[in-house]
Amino acid sequence: MMIKKIVVVGAGTMGHGIAEVAALSGFKVGLIDISWDFLNRAKDRITESVTRLYEKGQIKEKVEDILGRMEFNTSYDIAKDADFAIEAVPENLELKKNVFKSLDDITPSHTILATNTSSIPISDIAEATKRKDKVIGMHFFNPPVIMKLVEVIPSKYTSDEVTNLTIELAKKMNKIPVKLKYEIPGFVSNRIFIRLLQEACREVENGEGSIEEIDSAARNKLKLPMGLFELADYVGLDVIVDIWDVLVTRGTPDVKCSLYKNKVLEKSLGVKSGKGFYTYPAPGKYMKV
Ligand code: 3HC
């Protein structure tokens, strides 16, 4: 099967970045969201990012040619001729099932339907469709345009052909795919990531270290590109709490810690709201801590 057009549903932090990566890789792209506000903001962010890459000489193709391959819409109509769809809406099973039902209704029968979920079982999402063998997890990392890893997660229903096509697609998108044997909770990387965040949180709440000290240790000893609390801000504290809850519900040991939940209750969601553990210049504007 030749993949020519990719549609992405959800134009937020991950969705707009995945759409950008697909367009940079030469695919025709459709980006769908529920409001033109979200779509216009996504278009601005993609334009800014692609322009940055062009000005630094990291891509040769003109910005207008890359954007010319992209269409934006609030209607699923632009998915009618898609060969591959990637859902990147918030971590809510009912919401994801609705998206998959809509995609299942409108896309051709050959279209593969992927989810960028960070923690929800792929099989549960697949059950909303009549093509469970063509539903798969394709988990990107933030920011998708920079991060190389893509986890490819077949569900108990996914065919080998669909898994192989998804691995090939990730490679065509200049990513390094890691295929999971089956859908373990949190897949490979978020299991490790959330355990690190749990321990960091426990240390702060027990008065063993401050947020700044733990972040300094993460940068200067663990050699992570960001501190752990900084990275939690970058990913979104609401997303962290969602993943944490799913992992604990699915058997990962819990750690008593309310730092992240309290921030979410205060509506301090991290970079996206301009404030989390650290303060940023404006909502959505990350600046090195
Ligand atoms: N578009 C284009 N270029 C971008 C960009 C974007 N959106 N974001 C960063 N860049 C470029 C910058 O221009 C810069 O390029 P240069 O080196 O040529 O000048 C380069 O990337 C580095 O960026 P910065 O100098 O601004 O800052 P950093 O060196 O700190 O890098 C970072 C930023 C790449 C985000 C780095 O801090 C990093 O890798 N952080 C960790 C990110 C991470 O772990 N993500 C995974 C989170 S978990 C997840 O997503 C899973 C989910 O399920 C929760």
Automatic annotation (TrEMBL):
GO biological-process terms attached to the record: fatty acid metabolic process
UniProt keyword annotations, A-Z: Oxidoreductase
A GO molecular-function annotation: (3S)-3-hydroxyacyl-CoA dehydrogenase (NAD+) activity
Residues of the 3-hydroxyacyl-CoA dehydrogenase C-terminal domain: 186-280
Residue ranges of every copy of the 3-hydroxyacyl-CoA dehydrogenase NAD binding domain listed in the record: 5-181
Domain of life: Archaea
The EC number(s) this enzyme carries: 1.1.1.35
Protein name (Swiss-Prot/TrEMBL): 3-hydroxyacyl-CoA dehydrogenase
Organism lineage: Archaea, Thermoproteota, Thermoprotei, Sulfolobales, Sulfolobaceae
Residues of the full protein shown: 1 to 289 of 391
